[in-house]
């Protein structure tokens, strides 16, 4: 992009004077001269390299990094230093954390009595860091976080890396504190929705719309209807009447190929388990025969009959007999008491089976926001809650944005009332100010 005309003309007049090296320097100096000011004294190279590292990376340079810049005599040494810092993975860590703060990033659900760990939340953190390091366009950055799942065509299965990235991005909409579970009521569910709207409005509009949940805003031109228009946009993903708690909101990244591989490994496990079961039953029977041999007839036959009769069909006499002779209760758990060699042989199957199971592909998950797939092609209705009370629903409200941000002549451009309404959020105009 070219420089403004006045910036170029100032640069041509002042270039080469008073330490002016670029058009930007000239432009700044021109404004300083209007105030009868000039540039500050040049920082020494050690101070300069420390400033750059701390500003861009949030970390001081190592001794070697500082010395490399101090000893670099090339004319563009400073520009090269900036480029090196911008290429560092620490750049995304330094600046991505500001967006993570805006989004309310946390590794647990945040409820005092239900502060469960979010095992896959870190993927959203890594997504933000990588987005800064990749210099991702801001519009795409926002669109993926607001509607990444809606940008994926077809069912959420056999996903490629770019599709997974879009799903991970919707973790932005999963950062509100969420302690809901099967026994939680409507109040806590609606609070999660309200907190999510607060995060979205604060991050994208630079203002909070929370007051309008209960009444028209007293100081800003934000109506209660506007608030519920925004809520209607996110209602398909946060349907409080058909709620999914955090553990139900994860998306599996298992592919059909991985499922097929798991099935093949399971077949191998089943074969070994069948072999183990057959051998164990053989050893149990051998142990029982040795126990029977310790007794004379007709007691031996009575023991054998009682042992082979199913528990539900045993007579009281048979139950009393087996209780009197507990040594007949031979099983896999106590086989070692009858034959330690056989027990060790059965025990050796466990590491063998474990080794086979290690070949099963690990199933990975994404913490994402998705529509309620139990209701394809439909969206839950959103109603304005009188005084913010879900027990007092009033008129139905369609998805949309803030009236104050829309052109006066055109009015509010509402989003179509379909489950695919979130992508339009990116096109909402921002408040003037």
Could you walk me through the main structural features you see in this protein, from its secondary elements to its overall organization?
This protein is mainly alpha-helical and 433 residues long. It has three domains: 5-87, no CATH class; 94-253 and 372-427, no CATH class; 259-363. Helices cover 47% and strands 3% of the residues. The protein contains 16 helices and four strands. Strands 1-2 form a two-stranded antiparallel sheet. The chain has a two-stranded antiparallel sheet with strand order 3-4. β3 (382-385) and β4 (393-397) form a beta hairpin. The chain is elongated and about 120 Å long.
Task: Please sum up the structure shown.
With 433 residues, the protein is mostly helical. The protein has helices spanning 5-14, 23-34, 45-56, 63-70, 77-87, 89-103, 122-133, 138-147, 161-169, 186-204, 224-234, 256-292, 299-308, 316-324, 340-347, 349-357, and strands spanning 250-252, 365-367, 382-385, 393-397. The chain is elongated and about 120 Å long.
């Amino acid at each position: 992009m070219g420089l403004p005309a006045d910036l170029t003309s100032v640069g041509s007049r002042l270039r080469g004077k008073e330490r002016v090296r670029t058009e930007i320097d000239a432009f700044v100096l021109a404004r300083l001269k209007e105030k009868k000011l000039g540039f500050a004294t040049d920082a020494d190279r050690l101070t300069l390299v420390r400033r750059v590292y701390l500003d861009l990376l949030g970390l001081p340079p190592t001794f070697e990094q500082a010395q490399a810049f101090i000893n670099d005599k090339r004319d563009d040494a400073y520009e090269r230093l900036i480029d090196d810092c911008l290429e560092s993975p620490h750049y995304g860590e330094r600046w991505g954390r500001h967006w993570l703060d805006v989004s309310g990033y946390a590794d647990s659900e945040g409820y005092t009595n239900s502060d469960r760990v979010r095992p896959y939340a870190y993927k959203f953190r890594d997504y933000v860091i990588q987005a800064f390091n990749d210099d991702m366009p801001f519009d795409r950055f926002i669109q993926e976080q607001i509607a990444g799942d809606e940008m994926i065509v077809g069912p959420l299965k056999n996903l490629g890396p770019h599709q997974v990235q879009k799903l991970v991005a919707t973790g932005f909409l999963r950062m509100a504190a969420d302690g809901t579970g099967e026994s939680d009521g409507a109040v806590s569910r609606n609070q999660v929705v309200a907190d999510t709207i607060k995060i979205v409005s604060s991050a994208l509009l630079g203002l909070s719309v929370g007051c309008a949940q209960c009444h028209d805003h007293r100081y800003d031109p934000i109506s209660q209807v506007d608030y519920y228009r925004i809520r209607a946009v996110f209602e398909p993903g946060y349907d409080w009447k058909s709620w999914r708690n955090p553990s139900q909101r994860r998306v599996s990244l298992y592919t059909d190929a991985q499922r097929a591989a798991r099935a093949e490994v399971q077949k191998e496990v089943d074969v070994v388990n069948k072999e183990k079961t057959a051998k164990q039953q053989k050893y149990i029977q051998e142990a029982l025969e040795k126990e029977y041999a310790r007794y004379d007839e007709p007691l031996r036959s009575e023991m054998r009959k009682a042992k082979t009769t199913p528990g539900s069909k045993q007579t009281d006499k048979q139950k009393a007999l087996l209780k009197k002779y507990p040594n007949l209760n031979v099983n896999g758990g106590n086989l070692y008491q009858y034959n330690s060699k056989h027990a060790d042989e059965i025990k050796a199957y466990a590491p063998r089976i474990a080794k086979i199971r290690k070949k099963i592909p690990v199933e990975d998950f994404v913490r994402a926001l998705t529509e309620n797939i139990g209701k394809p092609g439909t969206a839950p209705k959103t109603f304005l809650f009188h005084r913010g009370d879900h027990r007092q629903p009033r008129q139905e409200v369609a998805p949309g944005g803030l009236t104050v941000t829309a052109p006066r002549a055109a009015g509010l451009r509402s989003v179509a009332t379909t489950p695919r309404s979130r992508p339009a959020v990116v096109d909402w105009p921002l408040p003037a100010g």
